[in-house]
Design brief:
Chain A has six domains: 48-76, no CATH class; 96-285, 2-Layer Sandwich (Beta-Lactamase), CATH 3.30.450.70; 291-379, GMP Synthetase, Chain A, domain 3 (2-Layer Sandwich); 384-443, 2-Layer Sandwich (Histidine-containing Protein, Chain: A), CATH 3.30.1340; 446-502, Histidine-containing Protein, Chain: A; 522-638, OmpA-like domain (60s Ribosomal Protein L30, Chain: A), CATH 3.30.1330.60. Helices cover 51% and strands 21% of the residues of chain A. Chain A contains 18 helices and 20 strands. In chain A, strands 1, 2, 3, 4, 5 and 6 form a six-stranded antiparallel beta sheet that branches. In chain A, strands 10, 11, 12 and 13 form a four-stranded mixed beta sheet that branches. A four-stranded mixed beta sheet of chain A has the order 17-20-18-19. Chain B is globular and about 40 Å long. Chain B has one domain: 3-Layer(aba) Sandwich (Rossmann fold). Chain B is α/β, with parallel strands linked by helices. The longest helix of chain B has 18 residues, at 88-105. Classes of the chains: A alpha/beta, B alpha/beta.
């Protein structure tokens, strides 16, 4: 459409429309994009990733600016919806925690197993001896003898700056300055690279210094340097590589922008500590659980056995105390059972009571492990008194004793000697006031009875004495006095009721009889019709005084007095009157002779014997000489005791 | 604590090793310098109230027998360029070395330490030279390994520079 000329405003507007319509459209478009919130957000979303990237390259400003908002947002989310974070972190934290715990347990188990093995094994004892001998610590000897390898230190080193990011060690004593060591490790690597002109990415992977090796596991931004004693397995290399990779996954960005602050890498410590491994020659993995279980099983068995022993010991102890308390004369005031030390028992003890050590043995306890503290006392209960009596006197087999209210009653068959001693001494025992033995059936030991007889009378060598059933039978020869005493006194002795002395020859009686016979068969002949002694008569007369003395002596032993009748005789020749005188004269003649020999005249009785009959030779021219004689007769009478 | 790697650079005999000997924690002997070409020491300085641990790589002196091993410069946050104030030539050599460092490691914070400041009578470097260097961005300190003058200050300043550098 063409407009008519003349209106300049319109024309100007049309011209502006023609020239600027496109720009105006673009301006409107731009204004809409700025004003429209939705479109503006879309625009920012398109450039935001690139802007963040550029900002990171420029520095930490964006991070610092966002930190409060991000931290507040995270905190709010955790407060309100923690499950989201739990779900998000679980896949990461779970394995880390599990790995850390598993590694700690593995090391604990290994350490425990190794300690047990070294403690109880013969080799362990040998090593202890070696430690003593060389002055090294036991741990040092064990390590030297059994170590295959041990990762002693681990450095996480920033590759670019050579600074130590983290350092862990198996022994806190190894506290060499890790920062400088890390630096020198890097320097050595640089030195090696420069010296041999290898590529920038090439790395010194390992080197050995004495017993130590240093293994280096490189990563993109950092590397691990492990200081290892001994000869590690290749498996360790894989572990180190996995660890450095894991570290890069967890802290890759932090490593890339590391500016010198290593605090951020502290959470990686468990990862590194998991690499502080050790292997010992005896600690074979397949044996570890078995050995541990065996030891644990043994320990449990020992514990059960110990408990059983303790229960048994307790039961024995109880039994022992019961036995002690059941014994009269023993009063337990305190008892302590010692498990490792000696047991203690205190109380009162009567000396007559049973030996507590014996009671301990009866209860199957070792008395050597019990200390007794007894104070003596005098028990007056019947059992103790009876035991005291029995310990002092003993009790014969068939004798029965009873004690009540201090009265000791004896019954049954009781030996006389034992009874006598009891009668004398029983009341000396505390608790015994009197003895009743009426019911006792006393019996006498024959030998003891005979000894008693011997002690009482003195047994002659010529006499043999035997006691049987209360009869003392004597045999042999004895003086009349001893025999008389034996007869009278033996029956007074306990155990002898009668004396049989028929087999005993009374020596005094025999001597008397012999003398009497000699005297009474002696004749003193006279001359015919005279009172003169014939020659033959002198011989007989000369022997007579001695014999009379022997007779008197024997009669004295027999408690008799002797009178000698002197019988004068005459033959029938001559008158009777003459013969009567002659008989008396002849008797007197002999008496006079004996008196002259010292005999008592009162003991001599001269008698002119009557001629009761006419002798056969009376009418003979030469009558028999036998009628012209003096004969003798011993007359005895009991002697009168001297006043 | 922030850690920073710094290097000591200079020609032989300028006193690099002596400069730090009394002021750092050391566990390696000087023989490393002649064997590996580097010895690492540690020094903690306080920069604006914050502790900074400086890992000091003392590089073997650059001379006719041993060239600077630039690989040791990798990752360094800065360096102390050391020259002997009693020998003008060592300053020229230091400046030449600094150029090689920039080629190898890029522009990094650095300080120039003019050592042996105690030998005043033998001093060869005039103030005009140092002013000129300062004008060209090379800050310098006069240091003395003998009496310790300027040493601590130099390390603190370098620590500040490397921590502020991004």
């Amino acid at each position: 459409m063409r407009r008519s000329p003349g209106n300049p405003i319109e024309e100007f507007e049309e011209l502006r429309q023609l020239l600027l319509s496109r720009e105006r459209e673009q301006l409107r478009e731009l204004r809409d994009r700025i004003v429209d919130k939705e479109r503006r957000s879309q625009d920012i979303a398109g450039v935001l990733p690139e802007a963040v990237k550029l900002s990171r390259e420029r520095g930490e400003e964006l991070a610092h600016a966002l930190r409060p908002a991000v931290e507040g947002s995270i905190k709010e989310s955790i407060d309100q919806r923690p499950q989201i974070f739990v779900d998000a972190l679980h896949p990461i934290i779970g394995p880390i925690v599990r790995r850390s715990i598993a590694e700690s347990l593995r090391r604990l188990l290994q350490s425990l197993n190794q300690t047990l093995e070294h403690t109880f094994s013969w080799r362990g004892l040998k090593w202890r001896f070696e430690a003593l001998r060389t002055g090294k610590s036991f741990a040092e000897v064990v390590m030297l003898r059994s170590l295959v390898y041990r990762v002693e230190q681990l450095f996480l080193i920033h590759r670019k700056t050579s600074l130590s990011l983290l350092h862990v060690t198996s022994d806190p004593a190894m506290s060499k300055d890790s920062d400088m060591v890390a630096g020198m490790l890097s320097a050595i690597q640089d030195f090696a690279r420069d010296s041999f002109e290898v590529g920038e990415d090439a790395a010194l992977e390992e080197f050995r210094v004495g017993e130590l090796q240093v293994w280096i596991s490189p990563g993109r931004s950092a590397y691990l340097a492990a200081v290892i004693r001994g000869n590690p397995s290749r498996e360790l290399r894989s572990t180190l590589e996995e660890t450095i990779e894991s570290i890069h996954v967890l802290k890759g960005s932090a490593l890339a922008i590391f500016q010198g602050s290593a605090v951020i890498f502290e959470p990686l410590r468990p990862e590194l500590e998991a690499c502080l491994r050790a292997q010992y020659t005896t600690a074979k993995s397949d044996r570890r659980p078995t050995r541990l279980w065996v030891i644990l099983g043994t320990a449990v068995a020992v514990a059960i056995f110990g408990l059983a022993l303790a229960a048994q010991s307790k039961s024995k102890w109880k039994d022992f105390l019961g036995r002690l308390n059941a014994q009269p004369g023993l009063i337990v005031t305190d008892a302590q059972q010692g498990w490792l030390s000696s047991s203690q028992v205190s109380g009162l003890r009567d000396v007559s009571s049973p030996d507590p050590a014996a009671l301990a043995r009866e209860a199957k306890l070792d008395p050597a492990r019990i200390r007794f503290h007894w104070k003596e006392y005098l028990a007056l209960d019947p059992a103790s008194v009876r035991r005291r009596f029995e310990q002092r006197f003993g009790v014969p087999n068939e004798t029965r004793i009873a004690l009540k209210d201090g009265v000791l009653t004896l019954s049954g068959s009781i030996p006389y000697e034992w009874l006598e001693r009891v009668r004398r001494e029983a009341t000396l025992i505390p608790g015994v006031t009197s003895i009743a033995d009426r019911a006792a059936d006393i019996f006498y030991d024959q030998d003891l009875t005979r000894k008693r007889f011997e002690q009482q009378l003195g047994l002659l060598e010529t006499v043999n004495a035997v006691v049987a059933n209360g009869v003392l039978t004597l045999s042999g020869e004895a003086s009349h006095r001893w025999l008389t005493r034996a007869r009278t006194e033996a029956v007074k002795l306990p155990g002898i009721t009668s004396v049989d002395d028929r087999a005993v020859i009374d020596l005094d009686q025999r001597a008397f009889e012999q003398s009497k016979s000699i005297i009474e068969t002696a004749f003193v002949y006279f001359l015919t019709d005279k009172d003169d002694i014939a020659t033959e008569g002198f011989a007989a007369l000369s022997r007579l005084p001695d014999e009379i003395r022997r007779c008197e002596k024997a009669a004295k032993q027999l408690d008799m007095d002797v009178t000698l009748e002197i019988h004068g005789r005459a033959d029938a020749v001559g008158s009777e009157a003459r013969n009567v005188d002659l008989r008396q004269q002849r008797a007197n003649k002999v008496r006079d002779f004996l008196v002259s020999c010292g005999f008592e005249p009162t003991r001599l009785k001269p008698i002119g014997m009557e001629q009761p009959f006419k002798p056969a030779d009376a009418d003979k021219a030469a009558p028999e000489q036998s009628e012209r004689r003096v004969a003798f007769k011993i007359v005895t009478q009991p002697s009168i005791p001297s006043p | 604590m922030i850690q920073k790697k710094i290097c000591l650079i200079g020609t032989s005999g300028v006193g690099k090793t002596s400069l730090v000997a009394k002021f750092v924690h050391s566990m390696f002997s000087d023989k490393y310098l002649t064997t590996v070409g580097v010895k690492i020491d540690k020094k903690t300085v306080s920069v604006d109230g914050a502790e900074v641990m400086l890992m000091i790589w003392d590089l073997a002196g650059d001379d006719d027998y041993q060239r600077l091993q630039t690989s040791y410069l990798r990752g360094t946050s800065g360096y102390l360029l050391v020259a002997d104030g009693t020998r003008q030539i060592t300053l020229d050599q230091a400046i030449e070395i600094q150029g090689r460092v920039v080629e190898a490691a890029g522009p990094l914070p650095f300080l120039l330490a003019l050592n042996k400041a105690d030998l005043v009578s033998q001093w060869e470097i005039d103030d005009a030279r140092t002013d000129d260097l300062a004008a060209r961005g090379c800050k310098s300190f006069k240091t003395s390994a003998k009496d310790g003058a300027g040493v601590e200050e130099a390390f603190v300043e370098l620590g500040r520079m490397v921590t502020q550098s991004k």
